[in-house]
Design goal:
single chain
Length: 206
C-alpha cells in the first residue's frame, strides 16, 4: 500500500507544542483539522524533511508527539491480553520499539507532503463523549483515501490520538493479530525481539 495517506497521520502527531494547552479547549475535530493543516504547511517549508532526512523527521516527531498521542495506550491495546502479564520493563520496551517501528515505517510520508487535500466529514460527537472518531479522507492525485482518527479524553480534558483507520483497517487491530502470533510463539520477550530486529532492518534500509 502506498504511504502518502499517512501524511496527515504524521502531521497530526507532530503538531506544535504551542497547541498543547489549546488541545484541552478544542473539540476533537477542530484539533485534528488545525494540527493537520498547520503541520503539513510546516513540513513543506523544511528542506531537510523534503529531502527525507530521517534525523530531521525523527527529531520533529520526538519533540512534538508525546503531548498529543498516547503510544502507551496504543501499544497496550495492540498487545492485547499479554500486556497484563508483561513486566514494567517489558511494557517500556514494547512501547519504545513499537513507536520506533511506526516512525521508521512511515517517516517517508512526511517527506512526501506536497499538495494533498484533506476533506473533513461532519463530526457527530457529543459534548460529554470521552472517546471520539474524526472521519476524513485524503485526496492524492484525485484519489480519495479513507483516513479516520480515534481519540480519547484524559482526566485533564485533553484529547489524545491512539488509533487510526485506513481504508477500513484500524491500526491497533491490524497489529494485534500480528503481535498475538508472536506472543503465542515465543512470549512477550519474543515480541520485543521481533520488533527490535524489524527496527534494525528498517534502519539498515531493508
Amino acid at each position: 500500500m502506498k504511504k502518502f495517506w499517512l501524511i496527515p497521520v504524521m502531521a497530526f502527531m507532530t503538531y506544535t507544542a504551542a497547541g498543547s494547552a489549546m488541545a484541552q479547549a478544542q473539540s476533537p475535530d477542530a484539533l485534528v483539522k488545525q494540527t493537520v493543516t498547520d503541520v503539513m504547511a510546516a513540513a513543506k517549508s523544511d528542506p531537510n524533511i523534503q529531502k527525507g532526512d530521517l534525523n530531521s523527521i525523527t527529531r520533529l516527531v520526538e519533540q512534538k508527539i508525546m503531548p498529543h498521542a498516547d503510544f502507551a495506550k496504543t501499544t497496550q491495546l495492540a498487545t492485547g491480553a499479554a500486556w497484563r502479564t508483561a513486566t514494567p520493563e517489558q511494557k517500556k520496551q514494547l512501547t519504545e520499539q513499537f513507536k520506533t517501528l511506526l516512525l521508521r515505517t512511515y517517516a517517508g510520508a512526511i517527506a512526501q507532503i506536497r499538495d494533498q487535500q484533506v476533506n473533513y466529514k461532519p463530526f457527530r460527537g457529543q459534548p460529554n463523549d470521552t472517546d471520539a472518531v474524526v472521519y476524513t479522507d485524503v485526496v492524492n492525485n484525485g484519489q480519495p483515501i479513507e483516513l479516520d482518527y480515534r481519540l480519547y479524553k484524559t482526566a485533564s480534558g485533553e484529547w489524545k490520538l491512539y488509533d487510526l483507520n485506513v481504508l477500513g483497517a484500524w491500526l491497533i487491530q491490524t497489529y494485534r493479530n500480528q503481535f498475538a502470533e508472536k506472543v503465542n510463539q515465543s512470549g512477550v520477550d519474543g515480541l520485543i525481539q521481533f520488533l527490535t530486529q524489524r527496527n534494525q532492518q528498517l534502519a539498515g534500509g531493508k
